[in-house]
UniProtKB/TrEMBL annotation, chain B:
Keywords: Membrane, Transmembrane, Transmembrane helix. PANTHER family: ABC TRANSPORTER PERMEASE (PTHR43471). The keyword Transmembrane applies. The chain crosses the membrane at residues 20-42, 122-143, 155-175, 187-209, 266-285. GO terms for molecular function: ABC-type transporter activity. This is ABC-type transport system involved in multi-copper enzyme maturation permease subunit. One of its GO terms (cellular component) is plasma membrane. Pfam families: ABC2_membrane_2 (PF12679).
């Protein structure tokens, strides 16, 4: 194993960007992105389609040149090959030389990464086993299924024992068992002190493995922090009553934030209400009784990433409506 | 340098594995066999005529042997043409192909500089293309010699000029594949090849008709794309004195061969252009987003 070139500066963050920008023909895809990823943590990078996630990953890997701002990866610049020697990358579009066998593919990437012949001899069978491709290394990549190709790409990403691994949608082609295996690989990487930058749409997956997350929209970070920090503060409650008559909806809007209301079924009204404290739940029941409505369900939910994601990212119909009212006022 | 050689090795293995090399070898063997069979039949006919005329054999450098000389010369033109075609087609996606099919991302994320990657691709493809032209030329000239006993007067400098031409073409194709998509690059390089050929035609007509403007236009085209001028230079070396005299009598009214040697400055410029193509490709690819 070669000496890590930045071993002396382990205190520095794995990724540090300040006001990172990328414009394509005058349109800002990444627009002042400031991000900090500590070493040895699993970091979830979340956002809707077109938020600039992939462009950000490409800038962090030196594939795309930033239009402005600063970027530091493992204490150096990603344009520096010595920095890239310590990175692993599984691209979203995992396409590799189809004429190579799995073994040759890893051999080639091992040589590019500067692994010695002896290291490659032990490391390649080890990573093939780790991603579940043990014994399949002699087949050409052209004959691999999509899931196998993604596993081969993952093997390539972790081959050179990187200090930081970028996984762009690493389970998009995998079945549920494959997803669990990838989660285990990510947890093993964390146990070895490797930082993982996870770009994924599968919020449940991110929720299970990530120490920290950042939400991006239109090329900017909306919020970032540890899961615990971000999850506090919101308590979603599902409410079912027979009617919203008697100004009940207005009363509820004073107690918390009405995210959604559905009165399409006659004799039934569903409301999703976001509270901030537990002790507001009885107050909701009181309000229902006071309005003369009948209560069928009042269910607090555990806050999850999906709730947060929708809160931060999506303009829900309810939010758009209240936004319009504000503008009218 | 280690990375450059690694990428070059990869390109060579890719060419072998994708059956590029085997298809080329088989088709080239077919081409050579077909052509040399024609030369063989020609030789038999010429011998028979000499016997019929009561002559005691033919002089290999005399006018009676002109058909054989022409077969060797135009056989080499085919070598130049096939070599150019193969050089462009094999190299057209050297960089753009890997970008388009997504292979490039995982390679460039490794500690290899983009200039190294382009240099490695160039080295690999130049090796394949140069070896191909050298092999084809050796096969053709060797075959003609075996059958007829005739070898063009200065075969080695002629082949060297052809190898330079295919190197220039490979460099420009690699440059194009860092600038354009594979398809656009293929079209562009063929247009350039056509520009070179146009240069030869304009020069020939300009000389024949004594029109300086045409000659100047031809010179411009040759500077932009010197491959055809290199072929014409090679053709000079491939002709014995008697053929050159025929060429001079016709005042160069033949755009395929030349009765004057190539300008050494043009050879130098072609070598510089090959270097510039490679340097431009390395520079351009280093600045490009993927």
């Amino acid at each position: 194993m070669q000496v890590p070139p930045y071993a002396g500066r382990m205190s520095e963050a794995a990724i540090d960007t300040r006001d990172l920008r990328k414009t394509y023909r005058g349109r800002a895809v990444v627009d002042g992105l400031t991000l900090s990823v500590p070493r040895g943590e699993v970091f979830g990078f979340l956002g809707p389609n077109g938020a600039g996630k992939s462009t950000t990953v490409k800038m962090l890997l030196g594939l795309v040149h930033p239009s402005g701002g600063e970027v530091r990866v493992l204490g150096g610049h990603p344009q520096d090959p010595a920095v890239r020697a310590r990175l692993g990358f599984l691209p979203e579009q995992f396409r590799f030389q189809t004429w190579m066998t799995g073994q040759e593919f890893l051999e080639f990437h091992g040589r590019l990464a500067g692994l010695s012949a002896a290291e490659r001899r032990t490391r390649i069978p080890a990573v093939l086993d780790e991603v579940g491709l043990g014994g399949r290394g002699h087949e050409t990549l052209g004959g691999y299924s999509k899931g196998m190709l993604q596993r081969a790409g993952l093997a390539g990403a972790i081959l050179a024992r990187p200090a930081l691994v970028f996984l762009d949608e690493p389970t998009s082609a995998l079945d549920p068992i494959g997803r669990i295996e990838v989660r285990e690989i990510i947890e093993r990487l964390r146990a070895q002190g490797t930082a993982v930058f996870l770009n994924s749409h599968l919020l449940s997956e991110v929720e299970q493995v990530c120490d920290r997350v950042a939400f991006v929209k239109r090329g900017r970070v909306l919020t970032q922090g540890s899961m615990r920090e971000l999850m506090g503060g919101v308590l979603p409650v599902d409410l079912r009553v027979n009617t919203l008559a008697g100004g009940l909806l207005d009363t509820l809007a004073r107690l918390g934030e009405v995210r959604r209301s559905d009165t399409n079924t006659p004799g039934r009204a569903d409301v999703e209400l976001w509270l901030t404290r537990d002790d507001q739940i009885p107050a909701v029941a009181d309000a229902v009784h006071a309005a003369g409505a009948r209560l069928y369900a009042l269910t607090p939910r555990r806050p999850d990433l999906e709730t947060m994601f929708l809160d931060l990212i999506e303009d829900t119909p309810e939010a758009a409506r209240s936004g319009a009212e504000v503008r009218h006022a | 340098m280690r990375n450059v050689l690694l990428i070059a090795e990869l390109s060579l293995r890719e060419a072998t594995r994708k059956r590029l090399v085997s298809v080329l070898l088989v088709l080239s063997a077919l081409f050579l066999g077909f052509f040399l069979f024609g030369v063989y039949r020609l030789e038999l006919t010429l011998d028979q005529r000499a016997i019929d005329a009561g002559l005691d054999g033919r002089s290999p450098t005399g006018a009676a042997n002109l058909p054989v000389m022409f077969s060797a010369l135009f056989g080499m033109y085919l070598v130049y043409f096939l070599g150019s075609l193969m050089g462009v087609l094999s190299t057209v996606g050297a960089v753009s192909g890997d970008i388009e099919n997504g292979v490039m991302q995982s390679v460039i994320a490794r500690p290899v500089s983009r200039a190294q990657l382009v240099a490695g691709r160039w080295l690999g493809f130049t090796a394949v293309n140069v070896a191909y032209v050298a092999l084809l030329a050796a096969g053709l000239l060797g075959g003609v010699r075996l059958i007829t006993g005739y070898t063009p007067p200065e075969a080695l400098p002629a082949v060297a000029l052809l190898l330079l031409a295919v190197t220039v073409l490979t460099s420009l194709t690699v440059l194009g594949s860092t600038l354009f998509t594979t398809l656009a690059n293929g079209i562009g390089v063929f247009v350039l090849y056509g520009v070179g050929f146009t240069g030869g035609i304009l020069s020939a007509i300009g000389t024949l008709a004594d029109t300086p403007t045409l000659t100047t236009l031809g010179r411009v085209a040759n500077a932009v794309m010197p491959t055809n001028a290199l072929w014409l230079g090679a053709s000079y070396h491939l002709q014995p004195e008697i053929m050159r005299q025929v060429g001079e009598v016709s005042r160069g009214a033949n755009p395929f061969t030349s009765s004057v040697p190539v300008d050494p400055l043009l050879v130098l410029w072609a070598a510089i252009l090959a270097g510039l193509g490679l340097a431009g490709a390395m520079w351009r690819f280093s600045r490009r987003d993927l």
